[in-house]
Amino acid sequence: MQLSNIIQSLLKHNYISDNKALTFRAGQIFSGKVLKLFPNQIAEVLVGSHKVLAQLEIPLSVNENHWFQVESVEGKVHLKVLDTQGTNEKQLLVGDLLKLFSLPETKENITLLQHFVKERLPITKETIKTAAEWVKGSQSIQDSLQAISALYSKQLPFTKDVFQSITSIIKNDSFLSLLENLQTLLKDNTTNDTSTRLLSIINEMSMTEKERTINLALTTLIKEAQGIQDPVKSETALKLLQDLGFFLKETTSKEVRIFSAGQLENNNNILIASEELQTEVPFLLSTLSKNREAIVKFAQLLSLEESEAAIKLSAKEQDLLTSIKREVLESIKPVDAHVVKDQLKNLIQKIGFSYEREAAKLINNQNQEEINKIEMLKPILMQLLKDEPTAPIKDAAEKLLLNITGYQVLSQEVGPVQQYVFQLPITFWDKKLDMTMQWSGRKSKEGKIDPNYCRVLFYLNLDHLKETIVDLQVQNRVINIFITNDRNDLKAIASPFVAQLKESLAVLNYHLSSVTYNRTTESKKAINGKVSEQFTNTSTIIVPNTYNGVDFRI
């Protein structure tokens, strides 16, 4: 089971947008199927996923597909049944469409028309011309065609930005890899305030808990080395920094204080064991962290990494290190449900998945200054692109921005129904990975997803368990969990934790009904089949409108 299969199921299935009104444009061609005939020449017609009522002026057969062209949208919509040639499926010929729309016989036009006819998408001359330009500049025609289908199935704006955003998700680029690629490019190219802010927020988002712990301990050690409060401790801390390789033996506590404040005018005066330094260094830590060899030695002393031959420490150094370790451990919050929840909420906010909503609130309050201060990844990326960066940085920033926008587009809020999809870079101590999450369900009275009736799906690619999908379904606070993984012993590994999970959920007034374990092959069949109870069937949560009240005359 791959993440791309889940994304494709989100793109193909149209649970939420069924609630949107069906619209027609003059000249548009679309496919429809007569489902039922009623008295007075009234028929129920299936158009895409919508069922509508039509007044027939010519006889049509039940259960046959027909191609229609919109003649007029004044008052009632007037449709003309197109004459078709060939098969019983009433298939339109691409050559006929090229002539009808006066389009040149190019590879892109032919490919698009074949796709539109096969998928029975509504066709206009303008959409074919526009889509042909997109396809011509794309790396993968299949990805482009799938993205175009998604624009229709989700009833999204038919614009290049939205098309590129959806294509970015279809490519299945790792959010973490896109983030780290841009981070690498920015490290040596922070030329203005925007790039500096961007690098800072990327560093914060991509830092592991182990790196945070080391940085916190190193910060404490540097403060001691400055010798402001305790000269004896200062001498011990400075010697330890020198032995680790952060500073040269000639460095003094005074120089550490001056350097920490970024007050040195000449790099030649900085007695530090680092390859390259900036002219102004606001934080000494950022420079010392570049010394990877010294960082590894320090981590070994902190017992964060295995070490065969640790540095020999004096009694004073050992006491100082013990004190620092105690201080660091006291500052670290134990990982529990509340901490994880806060971390995920913070990540979603920091990336900027809700940026437009936050900005809209400030715009309504006429607070442009606060809008510019929003420290989110998305708006800073947008500002960076306005600043005309170098070509490699521009390309990396655009890819990351499109990825964020793509997940925003997949997240929909229509009427009482909500669906949110995110990919987040998360860390487990010293491991980094992408986690894709999908929430779906009805709104509560407060406008949030109703915790009594909802569904949450997690996709992870772990070092040992590999690809793992956790599908959590909630009905009237009764929870059923489906776990998909290829390990034969997964049930044996997970079973000891089920009782504790059930107890913890009971505290939150939830009842765990079942935990079901599936293999990847079983889930693939479910997703690729007509109905997927585990991944694509949300009928128990979302009930689409049966009719949309559209009247038209054929």
How many β-strands, per DSSP? 13
Shape summary: elongated
The radius of gyration over CA amounts to 30 Å
How do the strands line up in the largest sheet?
Answer: 6-7-8-9-10-11-12
* N-to-C CA distance: 45 Å
Mean pLDDT: 78
Helicity, as a percent range: 40-55%
Quick overview of this protein structure:
With 554 residues, the protein is of the alpha+beta class. It has helices spanning 3-12, 94-101, 107-119, 125-136, 141-153, 160-170, 175-187, 193-206, 209-225, 231-244, 253-260, 284-288, 292-301, 315-331, 337-351, 355-364, 368-372, 377-386, 391-410, 490-507, 520-528; strands at 29-38, 42-47, 50-55, 65-72, 77-81, 412-414, 417-428, 431-443, 449-462, 466-475, 478-484, 511-518, 551-553.
Structural features, described:
Helix content is 45%, strand content 19%. With 554 residues, it is of the alpha+beta class. A seven-stranded mixed β-sheet has the order 6-7-8-9-10-11-12. A six-stranded mixed beta barrel has the order 1-2-3-13-5-4. A hairpin with a 3-residue loop joins strand 1 (29-38) and strand 2. The longest helix has 20 residues, at 391-410. It starts with a helix and ends with a strand.
For the structure shown, list the relevant keywords.
554 residues, 7-stranded mixed β-sheet, alpha+beta, 13 strands
List the helices and strands and how they pair.
Layout (H helix, E strand, L loop, with lengths): L2 H10 L16 E10 L3 E6 L2 E6 L9 E8 L4 E5 L12 H8 L5 H13 L5 H12 L4 H13 L6 H11 L4 H13 L5 H14 L2 H17 L5 H14 L8 H8 L23 H5 L3 H10 L13 H17 L5 H15 L3 H10 L3 H5 L4 H10 L4 H20 L1 E3 L2 E12 L2 E13 L5 E14 L3 E10 L2 E7 L5 H18 L3 E8 L1 H9 L22 E3 L1
